[in-house]
Amino acid sequence: MYLQIMEQIKQKVRVGDWPAGHPLPSIRELSVATKVSVITVKRAYTELEAEGVIVTQAGRGSFVADVMDVQKALGEAELDKYIAGLIGAGRALGMSDNQILAQVKKALIDD
User: Fold this and answer.
1) What residues in the chain have per-residue pLDDT under 70?
2) What's 54's domain CATH number?
3) Whether 9 contacts 54, CB under 8 Å
C-alpha cells in the first residue's frame, strides 16, 4: 500500500500538480484521507525522502524537493525500472548475469 501512496505522490509531482516547495499533507491527514495506517504513510514519506522526491523539515512538515533533485530522483527511478526489465529479459533468454553485463557494456561502447 505504501508503494501506491508513493506512486500517487510522484505522479502529482511529475505532472506539476505539486511543484517544488509544495507542502505535503501531514502523515496523519493523509492517513485519514486514504484510510491507511499512519505507519504505512510514514513509510511512504520515508522512502520518498530517501529517493530525493520530498524533504522533511522538523516542526514544519514535508515538502516537494527542489526541482533538480526531483527530476534526478524520478529519472533514476525510471531508469531502474528499465534496467530491471532488461535484466529480466536477459535471464528469460537464459543469459547469465555476466553475459547481460557484457551486452550492456558493449552497448555503451557502441553508443
Assistant:
1) 67-71, 73
2) 1.10.10.10
3) yes
